[in-house]
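Weekly modeling sync, notes
Attendees: S.R. (lead), two postdocs, one rotation student

Agenda item 3: backlog of single-chain predictions. S.R. asked that every request posted to the team notebook include the full sequence so nobody has to chase files. The rotation student volunteered to paste the first one in as an example of the format we agreed on. Action items at the bottom.

Example entry:
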Amino acid sequence: MISRSSSSDFGGDKAEVSRKMKRNDFMAYVIGVDCGTSGTKTVLFDESGSVIASKTIEYPMYQPKNGYAEQEPGDWANAMINTIKAVMVQSGVKKEDVKGIGISGQMHGLVMLDKDNNVLRRSIIWCDQRTAAEVEEMNRIAGRDKLVEITANPALTGWTAAKIL
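Predicted structure, as returned to the notebook:
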């Protein structure tokens, strides 16, 4: 059973509330994970929305040429795993008390896999601009207006479709 107790039920003092919440088995928690361009931030919230613990791990963006932007997908996975572990250890919350995990990530990143799901190369991420010629070709062949009609967006250099070409 999940208690709907407010902080005032614990006496109001924030340090006291935190100490008591860690001791109670009935408190429910959720984790939010943002896998972003510069790093992954993970936050553990209690059922009232208060931040219980957070951890950020940064990782590099590679720019082998002007306009290129790439990242190692393994960096994202390691950061997600290690930030989740860190907030759980930092908070002392039992894994059974975490009732949900929400994950957000950067859009339009191309992660190429082989037939065994092994990563073939660094991900070409959303801010990579190398596909200008491919976008021009998409617009020439399909037509800019037709692409907007079909997708509700014009072809852009950040699109995954252009990165595949």
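Discussion: group reviewed the output briefly. The longest strand covers residues 39-46.
Action items: rotation student to repeat for the remaining queue; S.R. to check formatting next week.
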